[in-house]
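user: Please review this fold.
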Amino acid sequence: MQLRSDEELARGIQRGRRDDLTLLVERHHSPLLGFLYRMAGGDRSLAEDLVQETFVRILHGIHHYDYPRPFKPWLYQIAANLARDHYKRADTRRTDSLPEDDVSLRPADEMLPEDVFLLNSESRQVAAAIRQLPAHQREVVILRYYQEFSLAEIADALDIPIGTVKSRLSIGLNRLRTAWLEQEQEP
């Protein structure tokens, strides 16, 4: 049996087939959680809330999906907008993870794959440097190197021109390189 494409499943949801939403959730939950986990600076609870809200928005706004537009960039556009909106609210302040959010304090069976990855010292340094990037650069770096989106998919997901994607990616990578070199020079 051939797997149905994301676009076919989205079209199925538009036609009232709720089981197609279940298939899309199963297919995209983990990668989307990883994206939002990184966008939220390692706040697992916030990332889980944003994933849930993303799929709720998909369900309620599926009539806005324009078949046969690629589904994945549309999904990530919604998720990225939710993350941006969360940090734009006046009552939200971005802070470093509190000790209870520290991945090294979680039991091994409660850790996300991202948590295990972040336990590696070098990886934690990279994650810390990525968290320091402005949100517009952080999202393109994460989409490109963690989610493996093409430049065109990033442009579609963020609703920006490809030239802007390239610029944000270049500036973000330069900032990461500078931060990395500064960390290596520290005693």
